[in-house]
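Usage example:
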Amino acid sequence: MSFTVRKDARGVVVIGVDGQLIVGNRHELKQKVLDAIEAGERKVLIDFTSTGYIDSSGLGALVSLSKKLRDAGGDLRLAGLNEDLRTLFELTKLDTLFSIADSAEQALANF
Amino acid sequence: MAPARSSGERAVEISLRVPTDLEVVEEAVDLLARHCLASGLPPHTARFNFRVVLAEALANAIIYGNRLDPEKSVDVRVVVSRSGLTVQVCDQGDGFDPSVVPDPTEPNRLERDDGRGLFLIRNLVDEVRFNERGNTICMVLRRA
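Running the assembly step on the lines above writes:
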């Protein structure tokens, strides 16, 4: 499990989640997004292309981070969810809360 | 791991005692998934659902059941049969009333960062039962 952080040419912070986003590592993701907000960043994309699993704590962390960014005048978007993960978002109706793109490239183009 | 036979149906039972430590949930799920899903090869969806519900039930048992008390443990029992999988997770807590857990998809709860674990379990398995005390959950995934 690891997180990669890069900044796109369009000024979007892209955080890649490699492996899983679960109760054991959600704090790490939270900190990375909070660090970005602290540094003045307002556009954050979380790329789940390499993510196999998200648990309910991970979903909750995304909800919390989305709110934090919105409160700071920014926007948190998601991309690269596989079919299983999409199911989780649809079941929990979180697909109505987030802007979710099929790929990071598509998300960045529309950000 | 103990093989068992009942009414001519071959079943495998796996029991595991998990410490109250969120760091071991992933490992416990991997271990049980490897043994439980090795035979019968249920569809991909069933494999994913099994992992999700087991992880959620374990996390709930550790956080809410055992209240993160390292002196306590969680007992997991999985029975694999031709009809499917039965997963039982039992914590050492006081129990709770599952009927009072709110629906996290309600508009006024959608932006909460908690409360989705039991909801996911209920929506990804065929049957959910609790014991009277509320410290044991039993989840059934039937083969298609």
